[in-house]
Amino acid sequence: MPKLVGHLKDDQYTGKNRCFKCTITNIILSILISAILSVSLLFGNRFSVIQSISLTIIFLSTSITMIWLKGYFIPYTPILTKMIFPQKVLHWFGKETTSPIRNFDPSSQIPILENEDIIRYSEKSEDYVVSEEIVSNIAKNYTGQKDSLCVDEIPENLDIDDVSVLYRAEKIYLVSDDRRIHYWPSEVAIVIDLILIDVLRESITSWNVISPEKRLNLLATIRLFLQECPNRDPTIGKISEYETCCDEKRIFKTICESSDEVLFSRSIE
Fold first, then answer.
1. What does the pLDDT look like over 18-76, one tens digit per residue?
2. How many domains does the chain fold into?
3. Domain ranges, residue 19
4. Rounded distance, CA 42 to CA 168, Å?
5. Taking CA 149 as the corner, what is the angle to CA 226 and CA 165, rounded to the nearest 5 degrees?
6. Is 139 within the bounds of a domain?
7. Are residues 70 and 126 in the same domain?
8. Is the whole-model pTM more than 0.85?
9. Could you give the CA distance from residue 181 to residue 174 in angstroms, rounded to a whole number?
10. 81-135: per-residue pLDDT in tens?
């Protein structure tokens, strides 16, 4: 039985890829359709009350099972969703195609960081790398920062007002006015950012007047180019492609080579 369930289950739209708002919507729709079906059968004079109720229960049970296994019960829901619904609706489901998170552009942060010798271009790797001093700083202070970490205090530590912290799947989001404005792909990424804040306060003279969004993007850019994890494990870049119930995504990640801890993750076009 477990093998059969595993064969029928669609991992693209279930488990960690499940859109819970999509799931709730599908459940509500299945209940409404079941109610309409029940009334139609009862007043159609073709089935008895017991037969009508039995058929309705069978339909509802089948729908819920399909939602559990597939993520939806209406055929072609992923395709139809992306074709029909406007951006505002996709935003409510957390699937908007334009947002501050998706529009992150590291190239605009590079000149600032390069000017302060925080990152530099390496001819050897043919890419930007973070200065060895900062890499060593992260490795030295990581354990202490992690032990004292309180996620709910992150906005205060980042000097950002009027935001809250939202946990979803393995990610941690900053939310403002019900809109996700930033996220960390792991606890490791948050700890690194909290260490980097002290470095940037001292290195960038205009840090206190830089907008919160700009600060977050500067921190994310450093994580993007980190050549080592806090435990000195080398990092690698990786692109993953997958489809959710409402969107197709290509994700670039900077991960620790041996532990698969994610330091940086963003959708790419």
1. 666 677 777 888 888 888 888 888 787 777 778 888 888 888 888 888 877 777 766 65
2. 2
3. 2-75
4. 43
5. 90
6. yes
7. no
8. no
9. 6
10. 544 444 444 444 454 444 444 556 788 889 999 999 999 998 887 889 999 999 9
